[in-house]
Design goal:
Low-confidence stretches: none
Number of helices: 5
CATH superfamily: STAS domain
Mean pLDDT: 88
Radius of gyration: 14 Å
Order of helices and strands: EEHHEHEHEH
Structural class: alpha/beta
CATH architecture: 2-Layer Sandwich
Length: 135
């Protein structure tokens, strides 16, 4: 698990895959939600633009998978996911989150994100990509 915030992106089967890693201290920093939101949105847009230039079209679905590699979660992550969700769904896509720390799922559910249309959780990156690529 990285000590600093790491956000990487790739395209798999026409779907943007955002990989997020951070240490506990990242969730406790002032401005963590803003920083994480900014990084997720920048990487999402960068990959969408790269795919559009490469294929003269945008990523096939506009949807994305967020793969989280962290043991903790908190309101900064939830806020960042919600900001990403707003952008992705405005473009007609969906967000599927993989690896959300299991000890924090109840908090995520209480905040209502999984109940929103176009947001869901999956057990694996491959399952999430499969769902979005076949949509």
């Amino acid at each position: 698990m990285p000590e600093r915030l790491v956000v990487d992106a790739e395209i798999s089967r026409g779907v943007v895959v955002l990989k997020v890693g951070y240490g506990l201290e990242q969730m406790l920093k002032d401005g963590a939600a803003k920083e994480l939101s900014k990084r997720l949105l920048e990487e999402y847009q960068r990959k969408m633009n790269e795919e559009a230039q490469k294929t003269n079209d945008s990523a096939r679905t506009g949807s994305c998978v967020v793969v989280i590699t962290a043991e903790t979660a908190g309101s900064p992550l939830v806020r960042a996911l919600f900001e990403l969700y707003k952008v992705v769904t405005a473009e007609g896509g969906q967000v599927i989150c993989v690896g959300y720390p299991s000890d924090y799922i109840d908090s995520l559910t209480e905040l209502g994100l999984p109940s929103l249309d176009g947001f869901s959780l999956a057990t694996s990156q491959q399952a999430a990509i499969e769902t979005l690529a076949s949509a």
